[in-house]
Amino acid sequence: MSERHAPARRYLIVNADDFGQSAGVNAGVIEAHERGIVTSASLMVRWPASGAAAAYARGHPRLSVGLHVDLAEHSYVDGEWQARYEVVATDDASAVQEEVERQLARFRDLVGRHPTHLDSHQHVHRADPVATAAREGAERLAVPLRDANPWVTYRGDFYGQSRHGEPYHDAIGAGSLISLLRTVPPGYTELGCHPALTNDLETTYAAERLVELATLCDPEVRRAVEANDIELRSFHDVVRRG
Questions:
Q1: Concatenated DSSP letters for 142-211?
Q2: Reduced to 3 states, what is the DSSP secondary structure of residue 67?
Q3: What is the pLDDT of residues 142-163, one digit of tens each?
Q4: What is the pairing mode between strands 80-86 and 72-77?
Q5: Helices H, strands E: what count in the chain?
Q6: In the CATH hierarchy, which top-level class contains the domain 8-200+213-237?
């Protein structure tokens, strides 16, 4: 078969969020990278474990590392979403812009280079004014912004809770991930994940992180990647188009 008529290749970036948030998260991301299928991570620069995460990133350049913009975290309690913490008001455009720039500068200080991609904690960059600040930062750096680029499809369905924070561990088992892999389309796809080795965070998404780590390191999952002719890549491989 000629190259002209060869089927389009399928490339998968497996990106671990929350790198740097705790020692347990760091250990999980590292294990999922070294023993599993994680190829990329998003760094939270405000947390005490961010320095250790950045040190690992500097010593392991094969792992692409982007900025996980951290402005707030919310939990679903008594029928509504309530803030666990808020760095700045996410409806204050000036404060958001300043904080995004502050976190970008902190990233460069920690890692020694620009991020390979941008995204945000709990996807707050999907709505303005965070969307504008994140988009401007990504455009200035010429890097992908999660779920905002036609050349990288984002998949967030490897997640162990419902939209109301109810446990849904079936979604993060090996069988579910293998089924998901069969549906990866041609081109670049980013698969979000949240592995951790130990439960050392005050968060409603805790036990699920340990399940994710086991799944990401499952040999059957690795075999499914190969069986479906998927090539594992990172954001180092993504060349911006358009």
A1: T--BTT--TTEEEE----SB-TTS-B-GGGGSHHHHHHHHHTPPSEEEEEEE---SS--S-SSS-HHHHH
A2: strand
A3: 999 999 988 899 999 999 998 8
A4: antiparallel
A5: 7, 9
A6: alpha beta
